[in-house]
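pinging the channel bc i need a second pair of eyes. not urgent but kinda urgent?? the chain im working w is below, pasted from the shared doc
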Amino acid sequence: MTPRALSGATILQIVPALRGDAAGHAAMDTAVLLLQGGARTIIAGDDGDLVGELRALGGEFLPLGHETFNPVQLRGNARFLRDYVLTERVDIVHAHSAASAWSALSALHELPAWLVTSFPDAIARDTWLRRTYQGVLARGDRVIAPSSFVSLAMIERYGIAPDRISVVPRSIDTAAFSAAAVSDAQIGAMRRAWGVLAGQRVIFAPQPVDDANGQIAILEAMRLLIGLRGERDTLLVLADDARRRSRAIRILRERARAHGLDTLLRFAGPIDDEPHSVRGAAPPMALALAAADVVVVTPSLPPPAARVVAEAQAMGRPVVVSASGTLPEHTLFPPRMPEDLRTGWVVRAGHADEIAQALHAVLSLSTTAYAALGARARQFAEFMFSPRSVAEATRAVYTSVLARDE
């Protein structure tokens, strides 16, 4: 049932540009639900390839160039927004970036409209100026965090009251990242391109090779895994270019040769993981995940985003992740969940023995147990990260904000 408070409300979302990227798609997904609920829906930002789709659905587009550090332009945008909010009787302004939040905060001063802000996947740490600039996002009436990890960092850095924060994860294209979006022939061709022989299993590490991304520990885990399994039937495929001049790649290759693992190591090259303008079109990463038996993401530092972990589970693949940043939030594992709900394993970063044990557990699953885990992973991804689920969570934030007026 559509929340009654949204019917007749006017919601203005501000994005950098209404194009087929993550921010544009997220705004569009929310707009669809708002329109279905009887709300007037407006998206402001630079022009993009989703504008026509928005208008066709009955939404409105407001051209607004606001991604700037220029204080003169920010003040001009604030004046424009203030007049627009008053004239169009806007109830909620949702700023998806710091630049839009600066303009919106100034525009809404003493106006009867609510400001919702969305924090990015990482809290700025580098300079006082950037931390201050991003800090405007903490001043929304309601603040959306992409994870509990970021939420805690927001509270620590900016002193936001916990009851003003709502955790809404980033969505993924669950239609594109689906077993139905790739064929057995495509998977077979990918595995042949990787040099996978019949009966071999594939461990896929989708992050670029870097000291902080943990590939050395994964390689060491491969060595331990051979001892646990008693056979050399598993390949490690890395999403990086072996020809790239990198100290980390050079060290990795030297370690592989020293341990006799060089014949079990593959470099697949960089793999595109960017959202497509057309939903449902499987990107190369979807095929790579489908061609793997298990996906490993074990960085030592919190990654800026954990999207590939959600995507792997959407493809029905078990995941092994480190307890870094948002990664544990993107999988189900004991003791947080019962064993029969498990979709992945969480290990300590850099601990090759724990990674090896987790990989051994995955590769030792029976065909039936592996399929059941994959089905749970898919169900979890649909529930948590599908465009509709995330849009519904965002709509719930708007509803709770509007309820304050009642």
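so The domain at 4-171+386-405 is CATH 3.40.50.2000 (Rossmann fold). and The first strand starts at residue 10 and ends at 17. — does that match what u expected or am i reading it wrong
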